[in-house]
Amino acid sequence: MKVTVTVNGTDYARDVEPRLLLIHFLRDELGLTGSHWGCDTSNCGTCVVWLDETPVKACTVLAAMADGRTVRTVEDLARNGQLDPVQQGFIECHGLQCGFCTPGMMMTARWLLDRNPDPAEAEIRELLSGLLCRCTGYENIVRSVRWAAEHPAGHPGVSP
Amino acid sequence: MTAGFGRMLRKEDPRFVRGQGTYTDDVHLPGMLYGAVLRSPHPHARIVSIDTVAAEAHPKVRIVITGETLQHRNLAWMPTLAGDRQAVLATDKVRFQGQEVAFVVADDHYAARDALELIDVEYEPLPAVADARRALDDGAPLVRDDIKDSNHIFDWESGDAERTDQVFRDAEVTVSQDMLYPRVHPAPLETCGIVADFNQVSGKLTVWATSQAPHAHRTLYALVTGLPEHKIRVISPDIGGGFGNKVPIYPGYLCAIAGSMITGRPVKWMEDRSENLMSTCFARDFHMRGELAASRDGTIRAVRVTVLADHGAFNGAAQPTKYPAGFFGVFTGSYDLEAAHCRVTAVYTNKAPGGVAYSCSFRITEAVYLVERMVDVLAFELNIDPAELRMRNLLRPEQFPYTCQTGWTYDSGDYPRTLRLAMEMAGYEDLRKEQEAERARGHLTGIGVSFFTEAVGAGPRKHMDILGIGMADGVELRVHPTGTAVLRISVQTQGQGHETTFAQIVASELGLAPDDVEVVHGDTDQTPFGLGTYGSRSTPVSGAATAIVARKVRERARIVAAAMLEVDPRDLEWDGGRWSVKGDPDSGPTIAEIAWAAHSNLELPEGVEGQLDATCVYNPPNLTYPFGAYICVVDVDPGTGKVDVRRFIAVDDCGVRINPMIVEGQVHGGLADGIGMALMESIAFDADGNCLGGSFMDYLLPTSLECPSWELGATVTPSPHHPIGAKGVGESATVGSPPAVVNAVVDALRPYGVRHADMPLTPAQVWRAIQGRPLRTDLAIS
Question: Which of A95, B13, B147, B179 could potentially form a cystine with A91 if both were Cys, beta carbons 3.0 to 4.6 Å apart?
Answer without folding.
Answer: B13
